[in-house]
Design a protein that fits this description.
The protein is an all-beta fold. The chain has no helices and 12 strands.
């Protein structure tokens, strides 16, 4: 019998790959590959938090666009979960708002979605300029895992 428990995915997870974003293009900033033997369960209203810093050490521009998508195991087929959403929705004057429950961004999906092993949950960013810095940026997706 499957066991479902709360789970949080962040950039620190060993199944996350990271790459710096490029100005004026949509880039995969963080990509979580669901490990063998697990299923990630996303539910309507699951909280998603992100903080973007840029390579020039400034906080991400409020006009930057954020997307959260699912890619299949080949990395090709895409299913959108969130976005495009301006980074301003995640921040208040450049400082992330992660305490006030009424201001936290939540997945706007209409039903439960299961992300199967070897599929990807990807955080994409389109920055104006300069570049999103993977080492200074972070994210958090509160969800559930089934094992």
């Amino acid at each position: 019998m499957a066991f479902i428990e709360p789970f949080v995915i962040t950039q620190e997870d060993t199944n996350v790959t990271q790459s710096d974003g490029t100005a004026e293009s949509l880039q995969d900033l963080f990509s979580y590959r669901v490990p063998t033997g697990l299923v990630i369960v996303l539910r309507p209203g699951d909280p998603f938090k992100i903080h973007i810093d840029e390579t020039d050490s400034s906080v991400g521009q409020n006009t930057s666009l954020v997307y959260v998508i699912i890619k299949d195991a080949t990395g090709e087929e895409i299913k959108p979960l969130l976005g495009p959403m301006q980074y301003a929705n995640f921040s208040a004057s450049g400082v992330g708002e992660f305490q006030d429950e009424d201001k936290i961004v939540r997945l706007g999906i209409g039903r439960e979605i299961r992300v199967r092993e070897q599929e990807y949950i990807v955080v994409q960013v389109k920055n104006a300029t300069p570049y999103a810095d993977k080492d200074l940026s972070w994210f958090s997706l509160e969800c559930h895992r089934e094992r």
